[in-house]
Every structure is written in C-alpha cells, then in structure tokens.
Amino acid sequence: MEIEIEGGSVTRILMGVSESTIKGHPHASISSRGAFDWTIQKIVRHNTSAFKLLFLHVQVPDEDVVFCICEENHSIMTVCHNFLLLGFDDMDSIYASPEDFKSLMNRDRAKGLHLLEYFVTRCHEIGVSCEAWIKRGDAKEVICHEVKRVQPDLLVVGSRGLGPFQRVFVGTVSEFCVKHAECPVITIKRSADEAPQDPVDD
Amino acid sequence: MEIEIEGGSVTRILMGVSESTIKGHPHASISSRGAFDWTIQKIVRHNTSAFKLLFLHVQVPDEDVVFCICEENHSIMTVCHNFLLLGFDDMDSIYASPEDFKSLMNRDRAKGLHLLEYFVTRCHEIGVSCEAWIKRGDAKEVICHEVKRVQPDLLVVGSRGLGPFQRVFVGTVSEFCVKHAECPVITIKRSADEAPQDPVDD
C-alpha cells in the first residue's frame, strides 16, 4: 500500500534552541545540540528532502525584536525593533549612557545570531532545508505561541534532564510545552555523560 | 556533509497501542490509530527501510502471559503463561467453573491479538518492518519497563487529549511515560474532530 502523505508536503519540525550559559561562550547549549543531532540521526536520517527544520531562539525580554536568518543567502532581516532599557540578564557592568545599552544590545543580538548561524550552517552542510528566527519573551510562552502561529508538525525541545529538585528552578520549558503546545512534542533529555559538572555550564 | 547514522541501524519506534473501549468492538482505539497514522505520515514517510515499528499492547493484569506475533509468518508464540483467576475487567458474566475463565481468557487474548494483527497488517501493506507483543500489567509501568528492556529510539503514545478534569480519571499513561520513560517520547493527542461523543467510546 502506498503511504499517502498529505499534499506531498515536507514534515516541518520546530526546534527551540538555546545558548550555552557559560559566560563568553556564545555556543549552542549541550541540550540544543543533542536535540538537533538526535533529530537528524533518528528522524530525518538520509531523507533530507522530506523535512524542514525551523529554529526558534527565545531571548530574555529586554527588547521586543524579531530577527530572521534567511536560509538562501544568510541575510539578516529585522522585522520589528522596539528598544526598551529594561531587564538585561548580564549584571556585571554599569550602564551609564544610552550607548552602553546599544553596544550590549548588539552583543546580545550577535550571540543569538551566532547560535542560529550554527544550526543553519549545519543544516546547509547536511542538505536539509531550514529557517531560523529569534523572538523575545518568556521561552515557554513564546515557543507555544510560535507553534500556534507556524503550525509545525512536530516540536523538538532539548532538556537538561535534571532531577525533581533541580527541576523546581530550571527545565520547566519542556514540561510546559508538552502540556500546552498545539502539536506533538518530543523532549530530548541530555544523556548523563554529556552533563557538565556544574549544571549552569550547559 | 554526510549524515552519520550509528552503525547504519534503523530507527526503532515503540508504540503503545490500545483497544477501543466500546464493548464488542475489538478494534484499535482512535488514539492508537491516530498515533500510528501520524508516525507513518510525518516520521517514516517513504523512508520505510530506515524504520522499525514495535507495537506493545498492555492488558489488565489477570494473567502473567506474553504473546508475540512474528512478523514473517504471523505465527503466535506463547512465551510465558501463568494463569491467575483474578482481576478480569469484564464483570457482565458469572464465572462458575474453571472453563468459564478459560474461555474468557481466550476471548481476551483473541482481542489483543486482533489489535496487534491490525497494526502488523498495516505495516506489512506499507512495507515497514515491525514486531508486536502483548504484556500484562499496569500500562504506564509496563510501557516504561519495556522501554528499558527493548531500548527503542523513540516511544510514541496516543492520548485522548482530555481536559484537566477528565485527566484526573484517565489519560495519565502518556504523562507518566513522558516523565519516566528512558527514551524520547512523543504524545500524539487525538484531534478534537475525532473525539467520540462519549469519551469512553475511544
């Protein structure tokens, strides 16, 4: 029996990706890389033309801005940009002028773009179609909102695989998405041997 | 870049499948069929040789028995069989002799085998490799135990997609598996238009 695939369309997989929390390392977190590798190896496999990966990175809500990396030419499109001088997550510096905020914002944006560039480049190397964008807000709320808007076939989120005690403080994004996202959700727990000594170093 | 797939092995997807609860309808439940269809259409697609589906049906613990349907010739292997005269889920009849239990047990087993036959036949038609077996026990505990034993790449469970109030009474299997299964889990919620008027009729 022939497998009927609706309209011959590709399977669109939305992946929530995050940066490593190690200061000065604007790299993909271990859990995000793990979730990506798993999705390629176990789901996409060699059937690259049948899938499209959508990468969403949610940054803390210090500004209301949307950036997109266009897969074809890696150009950056700024869709919306309302600068708010509130809520930066790096408190090591003192901000004395509007310029301080501007440079910080640029650095913050650059980190997010580096993160997306990592995944877009990997997709390009593998030969799987993709799109990537950044949104600001509460990660779990934004991811579920984007699922509603983008309507992917599947949402993949990495998880640090923490114990119940640690989960009280972190790692509730995946649990929230499993309950509230309006599409099937896979949580990829990081394997124990990939966990850094300090849980913050993911 | 070539996608490296460990040992060139297939992606093994374990699916927990259940019967419809409508009396006299030994058919796959709407949620099980939905989860199967989704997995074929969105994950396996036409890449049938890269996947193997493993169907696990968990029956209520009235006996400790394992049946397997062998994909190649549909023969039934009884691995273990310890008959216990306790805990049947159908209370419409009075059981007066050991023979009554035996015929009931045969009917129960036949229902479970029909269920697995449905999925094995569909896999055969589609051309995707599969295995199917029945275990007795508490569904959520047995599924997680089988994940540990069989070590699939992915567990897929259907869910009735009930509201928080209804979830208190049913539908906790998927939630338990998401938390406790030692592999990534996808819960496929039944879409609203597939829900029967009476939730019990799934």
Q: How does this model look, in words?
A:
- 2 copies of one chain form a homodimer.
- The first copy, chain A, has 202 residues and is of the alpha/beta class.
- The first copy, chain A, has a 7-stranded mixed β-sheet, sandwiched between helices.
- At the A-B interface, helix 1, helix 2 and strand 7 of A face helix 1, helix 2 and strand 7 of B.
Largest sheet of chain A: 7 strands, mixed
Helix content of chain A: 25-40%
- What percentage of the residues of chain A does DSSP assign to strands (E)? 15-25%
As an assembly, this protein is homodimer
- Major protein interface: A-B, 30 and 30 residues
From the alpha carbons, calculate the radius of gyration of chain A and give it in angstroms.
Answer: 17 Å
Count of DSSP H/I helices of chain A: 5
Write down the overall geometry of chain A. globular
Low-confidence stretches of chain A: 63-68, 70-92, 166-170
Give the distance, in angstroms, between the N- and C-terminal Cα atoms of chain A: 46 Å
The number of strands of chain A is 7
Name the average pLDDT of chain A.
77
Which strand order spans the largest sheet of chain A, edge to edge or round the barrel? 4-3-5-2-1-6-7
In terms of structural class, how would the helical and strand content of chain A be classed? alpha/beta
**What's the SSE pattern of chain A?**
EHEEEHEHEHHE
GO molecular function, one term (chains A, B): AMP binding
Protein name (chains A, B): Universal stress protein a-like protein
Domain UspA (chains A, B): 117-189
Pfam families (chains A, B): Usp (PF00582)
